[in-house]
Design a protein that fits this description.
The complex is a heterodimer of chains A (254) and B (428).
Chain A: E1 3-14, E2 17-28, E3 32-36, H1 43-51, E4 57-64, E5 67-68, H2 74-80, E6 82-85, E7 92-96, H3 97-106, H4 113-123, E8 133-134, H5 140-154, E9 158-162, H6 170-183, E10 189-194, E11 207-212, E12 215-220, H7 223-231
Parallel strand pairs in A: 3-10, 3-11, 6-9, 9-10
Antiparallel strand pairs in A: 1-2, 1-4, 4-5, 7-8, 11-12
Helix pairs in contact in A: 4-5, 5-6
Chain B: H1 6-12, H2 18-33, E1 57-58, H3 71-75, E2 81-86, E3 89-94, E4 101-104, H4 105-111, H5 130-138, E5 142-147, E6 157-163, E7 168-170, E8 173-178, E9 183-192, E10 199-200, E11 203-208, E12 213-221, E13 227-236, E14 241-248, E15 253-262, E16 268-277, E17 282-291, E18 297-306, E19 311-320, E20 327-337, E21 343-352, E22 357-366, H6 370-377, H7 383-399, H8 405-424
Parallel strand pairs in B: 1-7, 2-6, 5-8, 6-9, 7-10, 8-11, 9-12, 10-13, 11-13, 12-14, 13-15, 14-16, 15-17, 16-18, 17-19, 18-20, 19-21, 20-22
Antiparallel strand pairs in B: 2-3, 4-5
Helix pairs in contact in B: 2-5, 6-7, 7-8
The chains are: A alpha/beta (254), B alpha/beta (428).
The complex binds adenosine-5'-diphosphate and magnesium ion.
Residues 43-44, 87, 162-163 of chain A line the site of magnesium ion.
């Protein structure tokens, strides 16, 4: 199967702070991958660098469905099929979710958009949020749901879901996991970012990547989660990381 | 041609009832004594007027009016009554069939000479400044509304004030009275064509008696060549509420000095503003919220944007008397600076003499928010759309609090257009 997301040697710094030190990563179409790593290892920075946030100085290559996106403006990356669900979705006062959806529809040459909005809205029970300001006064879980909703209507090639499970109670985590499985398709590659493994109880990722101190230090099958549980991130990159074991729950009691 | 002098004043006031003639005479004395205000005075700070009131003369009659029917007038097709004035002269008046007395001063002062004695011209002092003195001395026409006790008029009244003749000054006076336990909504629209170099000096007086609700929406849409210096004052009785929305879009220089007196216990005021200046426009707001009664509530919420070389000023004073315990008073002024050459002043002030109060003020100033910008662009919206949506959202937060949603919708579309036009011309 061809590759949805191909990241090669992506480096990024913020001012003088080197955050990403050569990230390599591949997510094929049809697969769901998980990127794990301790707080501060650079996971969110990777999302933003792939999305094109201009506060980072970045180099390297990122192909979305085979098209190079590094160097492109944020909106072009989005329209090429890259979607980022934000760890901290910002409130946009005075702009309703419906206002945003209208604009999203207008910039896409996509006959199925309107129908997808309605079906995703029903599926995610978003009706009561649509006239409210984007992320305005939403709880953590509601914000994540709104991000998932926007992902579903965007029909991206690559979806990067940054801490989509954080701040959620266990029922909501299960819901998110099931939703990701439901959206799994041959036209989509998903990268779920988390520093908890509890979401792994409810889904079956094809691969897990481990990031420590700005590099992917290990890639493997779902069994890696168990390994992390036993040893923590420290073992993964001797010398550099000195972080404690992540909160790991028993994986896959689905 | 009537000039701003004793003869002009006498000519304008030829059919005044005696009580009004006396006030006019006093005001003329002030007018002759007072100088044009200068930016040395605190309440005129930050702004250079750059003209003199006697550069202008009174219009003999109305100039050619805009067609009525577009925009706000269309949105207010169902109204409780409407008056249109041009250059200080009435061109049409539909007094409506509501329970309220509504009409032009020229007819009301003849039909019931004493009805307005306790109201008209009593709230805004003639010695406040030269413009106010001039207003009292030279104002010939206006509109009054008296809503009788207990009456609730649901449809809004519509007052359309235009300037059409360059070189003229007009003094529209609008006096709105909500008697006890009554309710009404009034929409005032100011407008002129861009090439009209006129000066307009309105006075707006609001009387909200005990338990009444008075909603007022002011849409200032003067043309680019028109100046306006206006005063407004509201007195709010026990458990009464005044809800005022002011949208400022036009004028080369437009100023509104507003004072709200929360006199009655339990009275409240919601003052909302949205203003958007471009080119070399100056928009100048001087608001005072005066809490005199116990258990009074006020909220001032103003959002302003400037682009090109525009200047905006907001000074907000919350004054809480010693007796005005259990008061809640808030003021917020948020400013969006859309061009390097544009500037805004935002000066919140508090003067609190009571000790059992909750007070808050916030003032912000800056460009469009970068995180919001990034978020919207990550959803595929191009730069221009993103900026438009953010400007729209910025104002929407204020316009959503306006008393008349149909009017707010029209204002929203004007604001969107104003920004879009600047975008298309490459100015922002
Ligand atoms: N915009 C920024 N400004 C300052 N420091 C940043 C910024 N973005 C990331 N960093 C720093 O880079 C490191 C990685 O952060 P981040 O990517 O958020 O980690 P993670 O998402 O893995 O927790 C942290 O040390 C963080 O403080
Ligand atoms: Mg993060």
């Amino acid at each position: 199967m061809s590759v949805a997301l191909q990241v090669s040697d992506v480096r990024a710094q913020y001012g003088d702070l080197e955050i990403l030190k050569g990230v390599d990563l591949e997510v094929p179409f049809g697969e769901v991958h998980v990127l794990m790593g301790p707080n501060g290892s650079g996971k969110s920075t990777l999302c933003h660098v792939l999305m094109g946030k201009d506060e980072y100085e970045a180099t390297g290559s990122a192909l979305v469905g085979g098209t190079e996106v590094m160097g492109l403006p944020v909106d072009e990356r989005a329209r090429l099929g890259l979607f980022e669900a934000f760890q901290y979705p910002v409130e946009v006062p005075g702009v309703s979710l419906d206002d945003l959806i209208d604009e999203m529809g207008e910039v896409r040459d996509d006959a199925g958009f309107a129908a997808r909005v309605e079906s995703a809205s029903d599926l995610l029970d978003m009706a009561r949020f649509r006239e409210r300001a984007v992320n305005g006064g939403l709880s953590g879980g509601e914000k994540k749901r709104s991000e998932m909703f926007q992902m579903a209507i965007s029909q991206p090639k690559v979806a990067i879901l940054d801490e989509i499970d954080s701040g959620l109670d266990i029922d909501a985590v299960r819901e998110v996991a099931h939703l990701v499985e439901e959206l799994r398709s041959d036209d989509l590659g998903v990268l779920i970012i988390t520093h908890y493994s509890r979401i792994l109880r409810y889904m079956k990722p094809d691969k897990i990547h481990v990031m420590v101190a700005g590099k992917v230090v290990k890639t493997g099958g779902p069994e890696i989660a168990a390994e992390l549980e036993a040893s923590g991130y420290v073992e993964m990159q001797a010398g550099e990381a000195t972080l404690a074991a992540p909160e790991v729950a028993t994986p896959f009691d689905v | 041609m009537k000039t701003l002098d004793a003869q002009g004043s006498a000519a304008v006031g030829v059919s005044d009832p005696s009580w009004l003639a006396g006030r006019r005479k006093t005001a003329l004395d002030y007018y002759e004594k007072l100088d044009m205000p200068s930016s040395i005075e605190e309440v005129w700070r930050y702004v250079e007027l750059g003209f003199s009131i006697d550069d202008y003369v009174l219009a003999e009659g109305p100039g050619e009016a805009h067609e009525i029917g577009a925009g706000i007038a269309a949105a207010l097709a169902n109204n409780a009554g409407s008056v249109a004035m041009v250059d200080g002269h009435t061109v049409s008046a539909d007094t409506g069939t509501s329970a309220a007395v509504f009409g032009t001063l020229s007819s009301l002062l003849v039909e019931s000479p004493d009805l307005l004695e306790g109201y008209l011209g009593t709230l805004i002092d003639p010695d406040l400044d030269k413009f106010s003195a001039a207003h009292h001395a030279f104002s010939g026409e206006g509109v009054a509304l008296v809503v009788p006790a207990g009456a609730a008029v649901i449809e809004p009244f519509f007052i359309d004030v235009q300037a059409a003749t360059s070189g003229t000054v007009s003094f529209p006076r609008i006096t709105l009275v909500a008697e006890k336990s009554s309710q009404a909504s009034v929409v005032i629209r100011y407008r002129s064509d861009d090439d009209v170099d006129a000066l307009v000096v309105p006075h707006l007086e609001l009387f909200a008696a005990d338990n009444s609700n008075l909603n007022v929406t002011v849409v200032q849409h003067w043309g680019a060549g028109t100046r306006s210096i206006s005063h407004a004052r509201a007195v709010v009785g026990r458990d009464a509420n005044v809800h005022l929305g002011e949208a400022g879009l036009g004028g080369s220089m437009s100023r509104l000095q507003l004072t709200v007196d929360l006199e009655g216990n339990g009275s409240s005021a919601n003052i909302v503003g949205a203003y958007f200046g471009d080119a070399a426009q100056t928009m100048d707001y001087r608001y005072t919220m005066h809490h005199a009664g116990v258990n009074t509530n006020s909220d001032m919420f103003l959002k302003g944007a400037v682009q090109d070389e525009a200047l905006s000023v907001f000074t907000g004073m919350i004054r809480i008397d010693e007796e005005a315990q259990k008061t809640n008073a808030y003021q917020t002024n948020r400013n969006l600076i859309l061009s390097d050459g544009a500037s805004a002043q935002s000066v919140p002030n508090l003067e609190i003499l009571a000790n059992d109060v909750k007070c808050g003020h916030g003032s912000t100033m800056g460009p469009l928010d970068e995180e919001q910008h990034y978020y919207l662009m990550s959803r595929g919206l191009d730069e221009e759309r993103t900026n438009r949506l953010l400007v729209h959202g910025f104002f929407n937060e204020a316009l959503a609090k306006f008393p008349e949603p149909v009017v707010a919708d029209v204002v929203t579309s004007w604001i969107d257009t104003k920004y879009r036009t600047a975008q298309e011309a490459g100015r922002v």
